[in-house]
Design brief:
The complex is a heterodimer of chains A (785) and B (439). By secondary structure, chain A is of the alpha/beta class. Chain A is built from 27 helices and 30 strands. Helix content of chain B is 43%, strand content 12%. The chains are: A alpha/beta (785), B alpha/beta (439).
């Protein structure tokens, strides 16, 4: 709408007509208090805190429901308004238990803030307060009725935001009460958005309840380590005997790509770090048993053994399996370690999406990749395969709210009736497993229409769908791992015929995209550069092994015949995740670097206890290619970040680590053993200061920021703004390299959903308690309201 | 069937068929029934709306908005279907007029709704009847079935080519649903909670379509205006307050009942002549002039014409026409408590001031009446009510606050007497009499 001029507190303000007055005030830098108003949720006008005086209106008006019109003159504070707001706070406090000293929200409670602002300190009421006992609605959601001020934020975020509709209002008048959907308990996605959005302490989290006060925690901005969406999260961290304890995860500051969204895993499943099975010291197999050993002994043993195999039998007899959950810097370092130190191209990881084929199909048009933010603003979205509600909760949130708030058109092609079909303007259901056929049809194979026809989506409907898609501008095409290899090429071909179409390729783990981007492939260098196109890297690193290495399956395949003498497994559990017979590896020297005694660690010769992503710094790349910072929240005594372990192994193998990590321009040891500080990015801030003063930056060999420099310099698509990244913003990286066509069978999706215990989730007590609570709930559309 | 009363001063228009068996469609037809709609169908919609506007008919639900003006707000062209709703959720304590209309003259409501629908171009109308009026729903169902059977409803009404369907819908027992937007929520199957306005129902109403919503008495007056003409109707009452009105006289009166009197009829006369005065030799203490939500008038203030504007000037409201007389045996604190119990029970709970305010007022009044009052309670009750007034989401908060303010201000001495007696002085003296209507 056209801009209009209004006056707020004698300040002229210009804003589009129809803007809510409360938002226009915000724009003018004037805060109008409110409980029930929440941006992007339906309007309530229930709390009456935002009452303002609008000229020519006899009564005070609610700023949250008034749309601005030309010439409006508004007063946001006056004795009358102040008194009205004070009156509301007094009424709210009337039945409020005032148990602030023990309430979780104490210190970050909006009712407390309002009481301070409007000074309703003395109660006028002497009658008994209404009381109801607290209720536990699920292992992670508790409800304290007396604290509730009935702002209905939880009801709306659950229904409108999450499309779950698990909360509602029961009874009327002063007996009104927020109620869960199953009498006395919740049956929902357990996202905890209701707890997060609660302005008071009425809804509290099972993870955080009565554990601490907000001011007693350290708040660390980082990125969630669960799925590949990369939600920004703020961890509440406390000191604990083991080093540190994470007690809370939320994103109340609404920064980052996810706003305030987090799912069950981001909000509660951080406690795996403190699981009792966590390995806290290196283990070496002695007399057939894994026996605790010192870091020095373990690193020395592994380094020497790797060097021995390399020197005596050649690097091709060593295999390296990287991780989907370690940082970009670690992945980059790992493949560099393999190629430079171990002299092998036998590098691979558990592939959950065909990124090399994506790169090959895009053929250098990296600008055709969409960001997570763009998914929220696109005018149309085509979703092929996958079930984002379960496997990419943030992506589902972006899609859902784009449809709700921007009336974007969603087209869904899925053989399963996934929940997002409820937002779809067009839902096409092909026969099971034939999403790839649908892509062929879209790309122009007319014959495919008959093969795709089902009772719900006859052949004509498929033609209609294609017609509609062809007319879309700015379409974002999101596809799951159903689309791989040459099918992906067809999809990109179809997308290229549309104006401004962009793509998102969905992978399964927190840094699957990063693992692929950083070249954890036997035939690709970082940035999807084939080995024979790696001049850039050869110039920087020196000579590299030229022959294509073995992929994960091939490494295991030759192991039993003595073809693989050593296997270095970093943050991966191939034995648990892939169908591999452990016997095949019985003759191989296996080093596992992980947090937990996994199936693979159980057959290892050496186990090195690694820190997880909450215990180190670096960067992650989400499935869309958004690069974000991971910040160290604390550390668990005895563990080391993968980065440091790899550098130390290189050192133990007799390699000049200055050739591996470019720390300090002249290779000066500047760290003086301050690697802990360096991990938190402090060394980098130090470097920024030094550079600003014309001094030479000196970095620690264990500071991943040193390698981030090299990544930015050498990896195509990673030329991002460093200062923006360090400020906590997301930076989009693109897929530039030529890529490669691989055997589609190498892609093995994890298929974890919100409630299955995945790689980390199975060590989360809270996540498991929710899963137990849900047992007996029939499978299928349990996520729907 | 309610006992009917009458008085020579009555001008029987809406009530002219009461007691004459107009429940039967044949009898209704004999009594000029369905003539107005036939006349209307030959008229231009704009002419009908102007006719109603000129008649000075103001909404009989309580707010008193000009009915024709309300209709004229409905856009001529709308992408969504338009609706006409009859608000028959009569729940205001002291008001019992719609009940008589449904009981004695259901077809008048149907005919009024038909005229309204034709005037605004709606093809669907709903008659929403209060949940507690279950037996009246049965009468309405039969009336609708009869009208359909005669072809008065459905396709091509009276050969005009105009189609209209009318449905009845029962409430679920909430006073709040008498508020027009809450009624629409209820009709849509949701919790009876009012909507944010604007947009007003005339633009975005039921299921998002433009909607006219009128009180049952308003709609029942329409056919008479069409047949009698706007000038005749307007001349019955003072300027801008056209026609007659059903006044529901209750409380301490010799002859309580529903009387149809011209707008602007003197309240004092209404109490002492029409209502027959106070029984026994007791004196009048106060009158609630327009249903329990209107501020009471003391015995000295009742020499006032009963129309919307005159009562507004006296600081009260004509409301829904429920006149409650209170004699000297009435404990005002108890009456205030009884009133507040009602609002506390009926508050929908949506907004803070009404939900919490009514509850605290009830708690305070209950304790106060029982003898546990303290001096600051009196001012606190005023303070609370004034904090609610004009600041709630819908008028229910005002409806609870306004009478309380009047009770405290006008009968402060009675509140103080409760403090001194440490309880209700009326109960202690044994003079309090249970109110026949509100008890």
């Amino acid at each position: 709408m056209a801009d209009v001029n209004i006056t707020i507190d004698s300040k002229p303000v210009r804003a589009p007509g129809g803007t809510l007055l409360i938002e226009a005030c915000k724009k003018a830098g004037i805060e109008v208090p409110s409980f029930c108003y929440y941006p992007n949720l339906s309007l309530q006008g229930a709390c009456r805190m935002c009452l303002v005086k609008i000229e020519k209106m006899p009564k005070l008006q609610t700023a949250c429901t008034t749309m601005i019109t030309e010439g409006m003159t508004v007063t946001t504070d006056s004795p009358e308004i102040h008194q009205a707001r004070k009156g509301m706070v007094e009424l709210l406090l009337g039945n409020h238990p005032l148990d602030c000293p023990v309430c979780d929200a104490g210190g970050e409670c909006e009712l407390q803030d309002m009481t301070f602002s409007y000074g309703a300190a003395e109660s006028k009421f002497i009658d008994i307060k209404n009381h109801r006992d607290e209720q536990q609605w699920s292992p992670v959601v508790y409800f304290d009725r007396p604290r509730c001020i009935l702002c209905y934020r939880c009801v709306r975020i659950c229904g409108e935001g999450m499309d779950v509709w698990a909360l509602g209002v029961e009874n009327r008048g002063v007996n009104s009460i927020i109620a869960p959907n199953r009498q006395d308990h919740l049956e929902c996605e357990e996202c905890g958005m209701c707890i997060d959005i609660c302005p008071v302490g009425a809804l509290t989290s099972g993870a955080y309840r009565y554990k601490t006060r907000p001011w007693e925690m350290k708040h660390v901005d980082t990125t969630c380590t669960h799925c590949a969406d990369g939600c920004k999260t703020t961890l509440g961290v406390r000191r604990a005997p083991a080093g540190m304890e994470i007690v809370r995860g939320d994103n109340r500051d609404k920064s980052g790509i996810n706003g305030d969204f987090l799912c069950i895993k981001g909000r509660y499943a951080f406690d795996f770090a403190h699981h009792q099975q966590r390995i806290k010291q290196p283990l070496i197999r002695k007399n057939a048993r894994l026996t605790p050993a010192s870091w020095e002994e373990a690193l020395d043993l592994v380094g020497k053994r790797f060097a021995q195999v390399r020197d005596q039998e050649g690097g091709t007899r060593i295999g390296v399996i990287g991780s989907n959950r370690t940082t970009n810097e670690e992945n980059y370092l790992l493949q560099k370690f393999a190629r430079l130190v171990l002299k092998t191209n036998n590098v691979d990881h558990h592939r959950t999406a065909d990124f090399p084929a994506f790169a090959a199909a895009l053929a250098g048009r990296g600008d055709r990749t969409a960001t997570m933010r763009e998914v929220y603003h696109a005018s149309a979205i085509l979703l092929i395969g996958n079930d984002p509600t379960n496997r990419h909760p943030l992506l589902a949130w972006q899609i859902r709210n784009n449809v709700r708030l921007h009336r974007s058109r969603l087209y869904v092609i899925n053989s399963e009736p996934i929940k997002l079909r409820r937002q779809a303007s067009f839902f096409a259901q092909p026969p099971a497993g034939s999403e790839a056929r649908a892509v062929e049809f879209l790309a122009g194979e007319e014959g495919a229409a008959d093969a795709l026809a089902t009772s719900s989506t006859p052949a004509q409907r498929w033609r209609d769908l294609r017609e509609k898609l062809r007319s879309e501008q700015n379409l974002i095409i999101i596809f799951g791992s159903e689309i791989r290899g040459r099918d992906l090429e067809k999809l990109v071909k179809f997308g290229s015929t549309l104006a401004q179409a962009k793509f998102v390729c969905l992978s399964d783990y927190a840094n699957s995209r990063g693992a692929a981007d950083m070249g954890l492939y036997p035939d690709l260098l970082p940035g999807y550069l084939p080995l024979n196109q790696g001049t850039k890297f050869r110039d920087d690193w020196g000579e590299l092994p030229a022959a294509t290495g073995l992929d994960l399956g091939e490494m295991i395949g030759i192991a039993n015949e003595g073809g693989l003498r050593a296997l270095y497994v970093v943050g991966s559990n191939p034995l648990g995740r892939l169908p591999i017979d452990p016997f095949l590896l019985s003759k191989t020297f296996i080093v596992v670097q992980d947090m937990f005694p996994t199936e693979t660690a159980a057959i290892a010769d050496v186990v090195l206890p690694a820190a997880n992503a909450y215990e180190k710094s670096g960067t992650f790349t989400n499935t869309c290619g958004d690069l974000q910072l991971v910040r160290k929240a604390g550390e668990i005594t005895g563990t080391k970040p993968d980065f440091e372990i790899i550098v130390r192994l290189a050192s133990a193998a007799g390699f000049d680590i200055r050739k591996l990590v470019p720390f300090g321009k002249r290779g000066t040891h500047a760290d003086m053993g301050q690697s802990r500080g360096a991990q938190a990015g402090e060394a980098d801030r130090h470097a920024v200061w030094l550079e600003a003063h014309g001094l030479e930056p000196k970095l620690s060999p264990f500071d991943p920021m040193a390698i981030l420099d090299e990544i930015e310099r050498l990896v195509p698509g990673y030329e991002v703004s460093r200062s923006n990244l360090l400020a906590g913003n997301d930076q989009h990286t693109t897929v530039e390299g030529p890529g490669m066509w691989h055997d589609p069978a190498l892609i093995i999706p994890a298929r974890d959903d919100l409630f299955t215990s995945g790689t980390l989730g199975r060590y989360s007590r809270l996540l498991n308690s929710v899963i137990e609570h849900r047992q007996g709930v029939p499978a299928g559309e349990v996520v729907a309201g | 069937m309610a006992f009917l009363v009458s008085h020579p001063d009555e001008v029987k228009i809406v009530s002219q068929r009461f007691g004459l068996g107009a429940i039967s469609i044949d009898r209704y037809l004999e009594l000029n029934g369905y003539k107005a709609i036939q006349k209307t169908l030959a008229m231009e919609p704009d002419t009908i709306i102007n006719e109603i506007k000129n008649s000075g008919l103001r909404g009989r639900g309580g707010a008193g908005f000009n009915t024709g003006l309300k209709w004229s707000f409905v856009p001529k062209q709308a992408p969504k279907p338009k609706y006409v709703l009859c608000n028959g959720d009569e729940s205001e304590p002291g008001t019992c007029k719609d009940r008589l209309i449904f009981e004695h003259d259901p077809h008048a409501v149907i005919e009024g709704a038909m005229i309204a629908a034709f005037a605004v171009g709606a093809h669907t109308a709903y008659i929403y009847i209060r949940g507690e009026y279950r037996y009246l729903s049965l009468i309405m169902q039969k009336a609708l079935a009869d009208a359909y059977a005669r072809g008065f409803l459905g396709k091509n009404i009276f050969g005009s080519g105009y189609d209209l369907d009318i449905y009845w819908h029962g409430g679920a027992g909430a006073y709040e649903v008498g508020e027009e937007s809450a009624l629409m929520e209820s009709l849509e199957g949701k919790r009876g909670i009012p909507r944010i306005r604007p947009p007003f129902p005339a633009v975005v109403g039921l299921w998002g379509g433009p909607t006219v919503i009128n009180n049952a008495e308003t709609l029942a007056s329409i056919p008479h205006i069409i047949l009698g003409g706007a000038d005749w109707y307007a001349s019955l009452g003072p300027p801008k307050n056209g026609g007659t009105r059903l006044f529901c006289l209750s409380g301490h009166l010799e002859r309580p009942g529903v009387y149809e009197l011209p707008m602007g009829y003197n309240l004092k006369k209404m109490i002492f002549e029409v209502g027959g005065g106070i029984p026994g030799s007791r004196k009048l203490k106060a009158v609630v002039p327009g249903g329990s939500s209107t501020p009471c008038l003391t015995a000295d203030e009742i020499d006032v014409p009963m129309d919307f504007d005159s009562l507004m000037k006296r600081g009260s409201m004509l409301g829904s026409g429920g006149v409650i007389a209170l004699d000297e045996s009435t404990c005002i604190v108890q009456f205030a408590l009884r009133t507040m119990k009602f609002y506390q029970h009926e508050s929908c709970g949506w907004c803070i001031p009404c939900r919490e305010g009514t509850d605290w007022l009830k708690k305070t009044l209950a304790r106060f009446h029982a003898g546990g009052g303290i001096r600051k309670d009196i001012d606190n009750m005023l303070y609370l009510s004034e904090n609610m007034l004009g600041r709630t989401f819908c008028p229910l908060g005002d409806a609870a606050a306004m009478p309380t303010i009047a009770f405290v201000k006008k009968f402060r001495s009675e509140f103080e007497a409760h403090l001194e007696a440490r309880g209700c002085p009326f109960e202690k003296a044994g003079v309090v009499e249970q109110l026949p209507v509100l008890a």
